[in-house]
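Job type: complex structure
Entries:
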Amino acid sequence: MATPPNRIAAPGRGAAQNQGFVYLPLIAGWLVPGAGHFLLRKWGRGALISASIFVMFGLGLAMQGKLYSKANDILDLLGLVGDLGNGLLFVVSRALNLGADQVQITTADYGTRFIVVAGLLNVIAAVDAHNIRTGRKSA
Amino acid sequence: MHPSHFTAVLLFALCVSTVFGITMRDTPQRMVRYGAYCFVLFAGSAIVLSWLMFLIAR
């Protein structure tokens, strides 16, 4: 059975942590998977998040998954938004012309989903780092 | 790389469960438990749905 969800941190606790640029872990975590947690010295969590997202993205490319570059319809737009969640991984991969242009085999379709989900997970991880930074989530 | 559908499911479940566990819970013990719970649900639902589709297709 699932464990109960997180408790919201007590009021006032976050106020002391709200000094400085609180969005830095969010932005860093989006650009480089796991970087938001590394900035907060959550080395173990950051390493696991980083490994999971890099592995998913790498597997997606290895399966000849497609990297979305333009949005011709709503599904392409959703795929592009998901891909953009990978931050610099997506930008570098596009620059190196990695990924397939068209999905031609079944595993390439799996690969495309792996890449999109890696991006979405990266956004979740970046928001988690932001919540730890602001004190909304207990560290 | 051409993994089978089930191998792809397991790899997907492993990576997603890891991130879900870390981000959705706040203590290491609860993270592990929730990650394992998600992994079992991902893999288990894939197996159950596969058998259902197999039986429907017969």
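Summary: Residues 84 and 112 of chain A are 13 Å apart (CA to CA). Chain A has a mean pLDDT of 89.
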